Amino acid sequence: MKKIVIGAIIAAIVAIIAWAVLQSSPNPEITWPSGVISTDVELIHDWGDINIQGGDVEHTFTLTNDSSDPLVIKTAETSCMCTTAYISVPEKSSSGRFGMHNNALNWNGIVQPGESFEVNVVFDPLAHGPTATGEIQRSVYITTSAVPDGDITEADKSVKDGSILEIKASGMVLSEEDYEKKQAETNASSSTSIQESESEEVFSVSELEYDFGVVKQSQGIITHDFELTYLGSEPITITGVPGSCACTTASVSNEYLETGDTTTLTVEFDPNLHDEPDGKFFKTIAVITDPEIDDAPEFKIWAEIDLDLGPEAYKLQEPHED
């Protein structure tokens, strides 16, 4: 019995010493058990239209260690020389520059249980020259001590006892002329919409768009609710809520509406019905009423599919038209 107690004490002392070394070492070894990164986080950001002459654009992702163990942030790199990233962890100065090359090799950070860390992603639209317009999608790959979960952290042959976390940023780079023209058109359209809504507003809605983020093919049908309140003076009936694609269907909780009545539009999306576009895409849902409303609201859902089952698992295999 004494030998067992002494052995337990020695094991505890060794664990404490190992943790102290991990905390004080400038380059701590990845140790397990490790913290894990919360799956309830934003991993994709869309900058929208980017003026090639407008200077850098940036976005900060906030990630959390969702466990009872420390998480080690080892290093990072980006998918292109036009994109850089800077990582901040609590109680430590921000990392140096992480890019496609010449990264901050001597920096690392430890995120304690329940704490968050930030990844600031910066994109230089002029990095590829003044004519490099078009759609862009850039990634930041962060090496951590988290166990690969196949969800947001992936195994990599170059990583020992750890995994790679990928975050993405996208946008559309426009020439300064095209950017300013589009901004002017958007402002004019917004002004017209505001005037129309002030004089002819029929529905008040909670939101017009919703982003499901990255959806696994195996996840099954997912749903989101939009709330609508009827503001018109005469009773109205919602006769249909068609989606733009067979993978997207919708229904309302209350079809007959009088002034002040609220109805819930429930949208269902099936990520495994058929092939979808690569990257981020959207589907729309219209609202058809009787009497007909000229400016009835149109709703939009966004998603990006993780093909974890493969195309052979699609429910709809034969050729089709949406």
Explain what you see.
This protein is mainly beta and 322 residues long. The protein has two domains: 27-176, Immunoglobulins (Immunoglobulin-like); 200-313, Immunoglobulin-like (Sandwich). Helix content is 15%, strand content 38%. It has two helices and 19 strands. The protein has helices at 2-24, 176-200; strands spanning 44-51, 57-64, 71-78, 83-88, 109-111, 116-123, 134-144, 153-154, 163-174, 203-205, 209-216, 222-230, 236-240, 248-252, 256-257, 262-269, 281-285, 288-290, 299-306. The strands form five sheets. Strands 1, 3, 5, 7, 8 and 9 form a six-stranded mixed β-sheet that branches.
Task: Lay out the secondary structure.
Layout: H1 2-24, E1 44-51, E2 57-64, E3 71-78, E4 83-88, E5 109-111, E6 116-123, E7 134-144, E8 153-154, E9 163-174, H2 176-200, E10 203-205, E11 209-216, E12 222-230, E13 236-240, E14 248-252, E15 256-257, E16 262-269, E17 281-285, E18 288-290, E19 299-306
Parallel strand pairs: 1-9, 11-19
Antiparallel strand pairs: 2-6, 3-5, 3-7, 4-6, 7-9, 8-9, 10-12, 12-16, 13-15, 13-18, 14-16, 17-19
